[in-house]
């Protein structure tokens, strides 16, 4: 059924870099660097239009970088890696010493405008980030550095320090721009209505998703969910009922003007091949659009109909 199909796996940062290289700010830039500033820290290097994976898929994982000369020869557990000091999570954690209510890096950058201690913390953060970015730019000689991730919400505060450091030290300073696809601001939903007391897909109200944002300008995406095709204990179901759920979900998504949906899982789980698994795994084992032998279930045709719809 899937003979010859190519399956690719990538980290979130490498996938984001590939998107920027194909459709965004790194298109035509060879080589280029994608810098992801989120809860963690990583980069991806793009050469000849493709993201460099490395021999173990770990190229660009600068979160492991050494920070001091005394780190040389130390195991990871015996030192603080770069990501432990230069990341959104690290900045927020450090700021809570004087700003206990800090909930995000964006809040820390905002507070820096009127709190000298927080301002110093932000300055040191940008300086250490710049140190590593400059060295990387010297090694790679990129045409452009593109910055994405949640922290680019504070791009105005980040840009000046990074730009100054690159101009001062890199022989051929690259462009420095915000990513075209910097971050996702959305409400991600996990949706299993059959576990929520709904006996039939048609019983799920049309505003099941849309009511959650109550008119706020926040896009929604179903990131996991489904409907079992087999009866499980008190839950009565069937392959046709699962098919009807796919049809109903299309209506729910339209009502919410959702931006996307993931079907997890695509195949049923073969529980016999998973000895010692938790007993509740059976609740999710038959949500696939094909069974464990890859035979199509009725839900697959309904999914294909939804998937074939044109984009906005």
Written account of the structure:
By secondary structure, this protein is of the alpha/beta class. It is 30% helix and 12% strand. It has helices at residues 12-23, 88-95, 105-111, 116-140, 155-169, 239-256, 298-307, and strands at residues 32-37, 41-47, 50-51, 144-148, 175-178, 187-191, 220-225, 260-261. The strands form two sheets. The chain has a five-stranded mixed β-sheet, with helices on both faces. A three-stranded parallel β-sheet has the order 6-7-8, with no helix packed on it. The protein starts with 11 loop residues before the first helix and ends in a 5-residue tail after the last helix.
Strand order across the largest sheet = 3-2-1-4-5
The secondary structure category is alpha/beta
| CATH structural fold name of the largest domain | Nucleotidyltransferase, domain 5
Low-confidence stretches: none
- How much of the polypeptide forms β-strand, as a percent range? 5-15%
Q: Which term fits the overall shape?
A: elongated
Radius of gyration: 24 Å
At the fourth level of CATH, the homologous superfamily of the largest domain is: ATPase, nucleotide binding domain
Mean pLDDT: 91
Report the end-to-end length measured between terminal Cα atoms: 30 Å
Can you name the CATH architecture of the largest domain?
A: 2-Layer Sandwich
In the CATH scheme, the class of the largest domain would be: Alpha Beta
Number of alpha- plus pi-helical segments: 7
Count of distinct structural domains: 2
Helix content: 25-40%
Number of β-strand runs = 8
**What is the string of helix and strand elements?**
HEEEHHHEHEEEHEH
Largest sheet: 5 strands, mixed
């Amino acid at each position: 059924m899937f003979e010859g199909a190519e399956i690719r796996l990538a980290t979130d940062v490498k996938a984001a870099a590939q998107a920027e290289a194909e459709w965004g700010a790194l298109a035509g830039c060879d080589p280029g660097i994608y810098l992801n500033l989120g809860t963690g820290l990583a980069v991806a290097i793009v050469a000849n239009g493709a993201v460099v994976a490395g021999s173990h898929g770990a190229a660009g994982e600068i979160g492991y970088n050494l920070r001091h000369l005394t780190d040389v020869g130390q195991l990871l557990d015996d030192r603080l890696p770069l990501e432990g000091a230069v990341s959104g999570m690290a900045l927020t954690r450090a700021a809570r010493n004087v700003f206990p209510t800090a909930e995000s890096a964006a809040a820390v950058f905002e507070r820096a405008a009127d709190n000298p201690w927080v301002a110093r913390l932000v300055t040191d953060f940008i300086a250490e980030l710049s140190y590593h970015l400059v060295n990387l730019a010297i090694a790679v000689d990129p045409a452009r550095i593109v910055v994405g991730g949640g922290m680019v919400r504070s791009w105005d505060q980040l840009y000046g320090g990074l730009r100054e450091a690159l101009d001062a030290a890199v022989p051929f300073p690259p462009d420095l721009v915000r990513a075209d696809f910097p971050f996702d601001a959305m409400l991600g939903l996990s949706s299993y209505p059959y576990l929520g007391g709904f006996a039939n897909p048609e019983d799920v109200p049309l505003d099941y998703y849309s009511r959650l944002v109550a008119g706020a300008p926040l896009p929604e995406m179903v990131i996991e969910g489904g409907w079992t095709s087999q009866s499980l204990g008190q839950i009565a179901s069937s392959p046709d009922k699962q098919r009807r759920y796919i049809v109903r979900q299309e209506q729910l998504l339209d009502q919410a003007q959702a931006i996307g949906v993931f079907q997890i899982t695509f195949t049923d789980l073969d529980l016999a091949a998973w000895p010692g698994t938790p007993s509740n795994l059976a609740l999710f084992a038959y949500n696939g659009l094909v069974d464990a032998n890859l035979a199509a279930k009725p839900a697959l045709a309904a999914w294909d109909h939804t998937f074939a719809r044109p984009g906005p």
